[in-house]
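hey can u check if this looks right to u? its 304 residues, i copy pasted from the old doc so theres a chance i mangled smth
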Amino acid sequence: MNESDALYISKLEKELKDLREQNASQLSMYEMTTLYLKKLQEDLKKSEQKLSQTNKNLMDSIQYAKYIQDAFVIQIESLQKLFPKAFIFQNPKNIVSGDFLWAHVHNNQKYIALGDCTGHGVPGAMLSIFVLSMLNQSMSDLGIYSPAEVLNRLDSLMQKYLSQYTEVIRDSAEISLIRCDENHRSIIFSGARRPLVHIRNKTLSVYRGAKYVLGNADRRNQLLEDTEIEIQENDMIYMFSDGLADQFGGNHNTKFSSKRLLDLLLSVSDLPITQQQEIIHHEYNQWKGSNSQIDDVLLLGLKV
């Protein structure tokens, strides 16, 4: 072996040593990275488990809140004891709802209200429970039995209890309320930005209620008044929140609209109660499609 060969071999041995050192360094980095990723994976798994448990606890709490709200809101079984031919289409946005139904009986006079409180989910549900409690108090205070008087009293109570702080709470409610007098075949209606629809023999009448938001003195342009509506057998009465009409959907992603809702009610008004509910539910779901629900939905139908 000459000197040139010896130098070449020495160079190769140095390069091999360097490669071995680089390989050892990369192997060490790989092991460290593997350990780090494993630790990260374990931490993510723990976080996922915590999030899953937190979500479960939250959903359990909301579900329990629904049980509480349901204790305040009249259910279909109880409603049909007062109005045998009645149906409810209800679709909360987040399990619990800011929309509600309330009923009361006094001296053979039946009262029923449909309300739409500010917001949805838990905040809306809490407000609805408060409003329901105030409705019950309104009926017991001073012997009030006129729907307009009941709503005026409710408004006073809401302003009293929701305005006890430095910052006035802007929570409010829109309500339609009727009193049924079966002996005289009439109903008395009063509404605060919530309408009543009356259909007889495919003739539709809309009583829109006053431009008056309960609990918010800044949002009212009219006084609450009673309207007497003559009723005949098989007439249909509808009350509803704004959730259905405001839902986006259809081919052009527009609102369902009040006009489309009134047309739908007119088209089903002569059908059996159960069939009406099924068709309205189907039409709503078809319209909404894959869109997110934007608000609570509540619609009440009564055949008197």
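The mean pLDDT is 88.
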